[in-house]
Design brief:
- The structure is a homodimer.
- The first copy, chain A, is built from ten helices and 16 strands.
- By secondary structure, the first copy, chain A, is α+β, with helices and mostly antiparallel strands.
- Chain A has two domains: 259 residues, L-amino peptidase D-ALA esterase/amidase, CATH 3.60.70; 120 residues, ArgJ beta chain, C-terminal domain (Ubiquitin-like (UB roll), Roll), CATH 3.10.20.340.
- In chain A, helix 1 crosses helix 2, helix 2 packs parallel to helix 3 and helix 5 crosses helix 6.
- The interface between A and B is large, with 64 and 64 residues.
- Chains A, B: Pathway: Amino-acid biosynthesis; L-arginine biosynthesis; N(2)-acetyl-L-ornithine from L-glutamate: step 1/4; Amino-acid biosynthesis; L-arginine biosynthesis; L-ornithine and N-acetyl-L-glutamate from L-glutamate and N(2)-acetyl-L-ornithine (cyclic): step 1/1.
- Chains A, B: This is Arginine biosynthesis bifunctional protein ArgJ.
- Chains A, B: It is an enzyme of class 2 (transferase).
Chain lengths: 390, 390
C-alpha cells in the first residue's frame, strides 16, 4: 500500500538490473498527480553527501516536487561530477516522461558508496516504471520493495485524518543508521491540501522526534533523504495540529520499523530518560547509552547489564546533562536493577525473552524526558557487514 | 618483568579467590621501596567512577604513593559507601603491611560493575602478596598476570634511559576501551630521581598521545587508572626531555599492546590523519573513523571499504575540522583507493592479510596530523560481550 494510500499518487517498482541480485526490484517511481505538487525534504548532514542528495536538496528548495525516482543497488555517493550528471540525467528523463521540469524531480539512491550507477539500466528502468505506474495498493507495495537493500521486509505506513484525508509512506533502512539522520530513504505522501511551508514545518518536527532518535550502529549515511509530498487530491484542508501530529506519527511508525529490521538485530531497545533538566540533556543521555557496543552485546546475550548502562551515562559531560550519579535509577523491563547509582533488585528477575527491551533511566534531576531507540549488536550484524559487500 | 625492571620496586601476583575463575591470579601488589615515593596519576573522567578511583585520586593528590594494590575479578564500581569503605579498608591493610599511611596506598579494581568485592579474600590476598613480594622479573610478571580480565596476554614495557635509569610498566585492558581514557589499569615505575610534579606533567603528556588515542569499542570505563611511581633508586636525575620522551614511549607501547589484544580483534588498525588545520581537527577526524562499527566490520572481513571511511569523516562538523570533501585522499595499506573524495585505485589492489592495517587520510587542508588506533569488530567481540558476564 504505502505511498499510494493517499489519493493523487501513483507508483511503481521494477527490476532494472541495477542491483547485483538478479531479478530484484531495484527502481521505484512515485508520481504526484496533483492538483498540488507541494513538497518538503530533510537530508543527511554528512559532508560527503551523495550526488542524488545534492540534486534533490536543490530540487525541493522551491517547495515543488512532481515525482521521485529511487534506486537501490548503488548509492552514487563520492562519485564527483560524473555522479551528479547521472542524477541530473535521471531527473531529466523522468521529467520528460511525466511532463515536468527536471527541477521538479527528486532522485534518491542507496547502496555501495563510491561507484557510478549503470545509467542505461536506470534510464530504461525509469521508462519501465513509468509504464507500470498505478495508484493501486500493489503498485505502492512494489515501490516499497524496490528500495530495500539489507532490509528484510518493506516498511510502510498508512494513516487517516478525521476529515478523510490520508497519509501514506515507505522507508528503507537497516544498517548505517545513526541520529542526524538515520541511513534511509523515505517518501511520505498526503492528499491533504497543505502548503510547502506547512509540509516542511511538519516534517522537521516529525523527523526530529523519530528518525533523529534511532541508532542502529552509530554510522551516518551519505544518502539519507526524507521527502513529504502533498497532492491535495482529497480537497481537505486539515486542522494544522492534527496534520502535524499525523506526520509525526507516520515518521515515528517508519522509524520504529527501521529499528525492528535493524541489521542482525534480535532485540529492539527503547531507552527512555526521565528526570532530566532539559529535553536535550535527556536526549544526550539516551544517545550515549544507545551508542554502547558493550550494552548492545549484553542485550543480545539477554543480559540486563546495568553497569554498561551507567558507565555510558557517565560519559555525558555534567554541563550537558547535570545529574547526581548517586541518585540515578535504572529499570530494565520494569525491574529496578539499579537504585541510587548502585545495585537494586537482582538482574535475574528481568525477563529478557521479549524482542522489545525497555530501559527506563530516571536521572532524578528535573522534569524533562526523551526516548531513543536502538538495536542489539549480534553475530549476524558482524556477518552482514564483514562478509558482504554493501 | 614489568614494574620490577626499575630499581627500588618489588611486586607480587597471587590467586586470592576474587575471580570466578578458580586458581586465576587476581591480586597484584606493587611496592615502592624508595628512597623516593613520588607519584602521579590519571583517572577516568566517567561520572560513575568506581570507589577505588575515588580513593586513589585522593591518595595520589599529594604526590606520594608507597604501594599499589590491584585486583581483577570485580570493579567495585557503583557500590556506594560500602564500596568506598572496601577500598579504604584495603588501603589500610596494605598500609599496615608495608609500614605507611593508608593515604599513601593506591587501590585499583577491574571486573564486573555493581558488586562489592569479597573483602575477606582481598585482605587475605593482600597479606599473601606481601609475603610473596620480590624484585625479580618473575614477581613483576606475576603482577602483570594478576590484573588480566578478558586480556589474552600480559602487557608490559621496559625502557632504559641513557644514564642508566629505567622505566617498567604493566597494563590490563582489552574491552571497554575508549579515548578519555581507555578501560584499563596501568602502573608504570621508574627509578629516576624525579619530583611528583615532573611525574604528573610527563604522565599527562604521555597519556594524551597514547591511552587517549586508542578505541576498541567506544565504551568508557568506570575504573581507568594510570599510575606513575618513582623510587629514585637509580640515583640518577634524568634529562627532563629524555624523561618525558621515555614515559611517553612506555605509554605508547602499553597502549599499542592493548590494541593488539583488543577483544576478539583480528586486525589492529592505525588511522593517521594528515593535512588538517590543527591537531585537534586531525584527532576529531581520526576518532570519528575509529568509532565506525561498519568500517570495523568491513576490516574484519578484509574489505578496505573506503566509503565507510569517508562517510564517517563526513560526520565531523566543519567548524571542528575544516576541509573540502572533494580534496580528501585515503590510502589503505599504501594503496590510494580514494582520490579527491571519490574512487581511486581499485580496492582489490589492497593486501589486507597483515594483522596491522594502515589507513592514511590526507585532508589537504593544513599541516597538522594525529594518529589513533582501533581494532576491527568481529564475531568474537560479540561472543565475548554477549555470552559472558563481564
Amino acid at each position: 500500500m504505502s505511498v499510494t494510500f493517499a489519493q493523487g499518487f501513483s507508483a511503481a517498482g521494477v527490476a532494472a538490473g541495477i542491483s547485483s541480485v538478479a531479478g530484484k526490484k531495484d527502481l521505484a517511481l512515485v508520481v504526484n498527480n496533483g492538483p498540488l505538487d507541494a513538497a518538503a525534504g530533510v537530508f543527511t548532514s554528512n559532508r560527503f553527501c551523495a550526488a542524488p542528495v545534492q540534486w534533490s536538496r536543490h530540487a525541493v528548495a522551491d517547495g515543488h516536487i512532481k515525482a521521485v525516482i529511487l534506486n537501490s543497488g548503488g548509492a552514487n555517493a563520492c562519485t564527483g561530477k560524473p555522479g551528479y550528471e547521472q542524477s541530473r540525467t535521471t531527473a531529466e528523463t523522468v521529467a520528460s516522461l511525466v511532463g515536468a521540469d527536471a527541477d521538479d524531480i527528486a532522485v534518491c539512491s542507496t547502496g555501495l558508496i563510491g561507484e557510478l550507477l549503470p545509467l542505461d539500466h536506470v534510464l530504461a528502468g525509469a521508462r519501465a516504471a513509468h509504464d507500470a505506474l498505478a495508484s493501486t495498493a500493489e503498485a505502492g507495495a512494489d515501490a516499497s520493495h524496490a528500495i530495500m537493500t539489507t532490509d528484510t521486509k518493506p516498511k510502510t505506513v498508512t494513516l487517516e485524518g478525521k476529515a478523510g484525508w490520508r497519509i501514506g509512506g515507505m522507508v528503507k533502512g537497516s544498517g548505517m543508521i545513526a541520529p542526524q539522520l538515520a541511513t534511509m530513504l523515505c517518501v511520505i505522501t498526503t492528499d491533504a491540501v497543505v502548503s510547502a511551508g506547512q509540509l516542511q514545518a511538519a516534517l522537521n518536527a516529525g523527523v526530529d522526534t523519530s528518525f533523529n532518535r534511532i541508532d542502529v550502529d552509530g554510522c551516518m549515511s551519505t544518502n539519507d533523504t526524507v521527502l513529504l509530498l502533498a497532492s491535495g487530491a482529497s480537497g481537505v484542508e486539515p486542522d494544522p495540529d492534527e496534520f502535524n501530529a499525523l506526520v509525526a506519527s507516520a515518521c515515528a511508525s517508519l522509524a520504529r520499523q527501521i529499528i525492528g529490521d535493524g541489521e542482525g538485530a534480535s532485540h529492539d531497545i527503547r531507552i527512555t530518560v526521565t528526570g532530566a533538566t532539559t529535553e536535550d540533556a535527556a536526549l544526550a543521555c539516551g544517545r550515549a547509552v544507545a551508542a554502547s557496543n558493550l550494552l548492545k552485546c549484553a542485550i543480545s546475550g539477554n543480559d540486563p547489564n546495568w553497569g554498561r548502562i551507567v558507565s555510558s551515562l557517565g560519559t555525558v559531560p555534567p554541563d550537558v546533562a547535570p545529574y547526581d550519579a548517586t541518585k540515578v535509577t535504572v529499570d530494565v523491563n520494569g525491574v529496578r536493577i539499579c537504585e541510587n547509582g548502585g545495585a537494586g533488585r537482582d538482574r535475574s528477575e528481568v525477563d529478557m525473552t521479549p524482542r522489545e527491551v525497555h530501559i527506563d533511566i530516571d536521572l532524578n534531576a528535573g522534569d524533562a524526558e526523551a526516548t531513543v531507540w536502538t538495536d542489539d549488536l549480534t553475530h549476524e550484524y558482524v556477518h552482514i557487514n564483514a562478509d558482504y559487500e554493501s
